[in-house]
Amino acid sequence: MFVFHIGPYFKTFVEWLSSSFEPFFDGIKAFMEFGILSIEKGLLLIPSIVFIAIIAVLAWRLAGRGLAIFSIVGLVLIDGMELWSETMQTLALVLTSAFVALIIGIPLGIIASRSKKFDRLLRPVLDFMQTMPAFVYLIPAVLFFSLGKVPASVATVIFSMPPVVRLTNLAIRQVPTDVVEAGRSFGSTPGQMLIKVQLPIALPTILAGINQTIMLALSMVVIAAMIGAGGLGEKVLNGIQQYKIGLGFESGVAVVILAMILDRITQALGNINK
Predict the structure, then answer these.
(1) pLDDT tens for residues 56-103?
(2) Could you say which DSSP state residue 226 is in?
């Protein structure tokens, strides 16, 4: 039987990257660490009651009274379970990772919508990113950035980026041809066409991609805790490893509440723009 392992070659490649581009990875680590810790400190500075009030008002304005009531009840429950600081740590990690995924993913989606060749090249990469088990991303992330919040965020960025790339690409391609032709007939440049015609029409679908990216980032919480991300994921892991069923359940409930609030708010943003 033919035997051929690609793992050793991958290991050699990752080690070569890590040693050859160490200053580059150190720069990324410092930048992302600064972003995550700044957001985390900012969130923790806000008293829980003030934060709950802000989210309730935001939910009420965007999605109505039902989501506002759910947000108040859910966040008060999280505070009551003494998981507030862990929830803010998780939120900071998710927001940072989702932001990085979006600032990379949306331009990639725009380029893919304008170039069939780039789209063909990008598609298998996105397939690879979406189908690879999330645990595998932790291995190179740890080799490049050691343990902690940064490798967890990098693995989360890779795992959560494909939906926004695909949906941005799809949304721009689905802009009606007659609208595009009308824009051209008025002498729009490619930049004006993109900013003033295509992106506004494509915005609801792009927001759906942003929603999916945030949800996937949140789904990495427990996995990322395995390499020191902290937050609610660490509490869930402690509950499993130390057989503390109550702690694991409470942490899991907090993750679900946070996911539902973020999901409904981002969905409401998409509905506003339809």
Answers:
(1) 998 898 888 888 999 999 999 998 888 898 999 899 888 888 898 899
(2) G
What is the phi-psi region of residue 231: left when phi exceeds 0, alpha when psi lies from -120 to 50, beta otherwise? left
Nearest to 102 by CA among 266, 274, 273, 272: 266
Number of C-beta neighbours around residue 8 at 10 A: 8
Q: Which of 247, 219, 256 is nearest to 135 (CA)?
A: 219
The least confident of 6-10, 52-56, 69-73 is: 6-10
Q: What is the pTM of this model?
A: 0.82
**Which tens digit of pLDDT belongs to each residue from 97-156?**
889 889 999 999 999 888 889 989 988 888 888 887 777 777 777 777 778 888 888 888
Give CA–CA dist 112/118, Å, rounded: 5
The DSSP result for 240-252, as a single string, is HHTT-HHHHHHHH
First to last CA, the chain: 57
3-state secondary structure of 228: coil
Please check whether residue 248 is in contact with residue 239, taking contact to mean a CB–CB distance below 8 angstroms: yes
Residue type, 48: S
Helix (H, G, I), strand (E, B) or coil at 230: coil
Q: What are phi and psi of 21, to 5 degrees?
A: -120, 35
User: What Å distances lie between residue 81 and 49, 73, 84, 219, 261, CA to CA?
Assistant: 14, 12, 8, 21, 18
Say how many residues make up the chain: 274
